[in-house]
Amino acid sequence: MLHPVVLCGGSGTRLFPLSRQSHPKQLLSLTSESSLFQDAVKRVVDPEIFTEPLIICNNEYRFTIAEQLQNINVKAQDIVLEPEGRNTAPAIALAAEIIAAKDPNGLMLILPSDHVIRDITAFGKAVRQAEVIASQENALVTFGVCSVAPETGYGYIELGESLPSGGYSIESFREKPDLATAESYLKNGHFLWNSGMFLFPVQRILEDFALYQPEILAAVRIALRKSKNDLDFMRIDEDAFSKAPSISIDYAIMEPAKNLAVIPVDIGWSDVGSWSSLWAISDQDDDGNVLMGDVVAEESSNCLIRSENGLVATIGVENLTIINTSDVTLVVNQDKAQSVGALVKRMIKSGRLEPLNPKQVARPWGWYESIASGQRFQVKQIMVKPGRRLSLQKHFNRAEHWIVTQGTARVTVGEHVDLVRENESIYIPMGEIHRLDNPGKVDLLLIEIQTGCYLGEDDIVRLEDDYKREL
Question: Can you give the pTM of this predicted structure?
Answer without folding.
Answer: 0.91
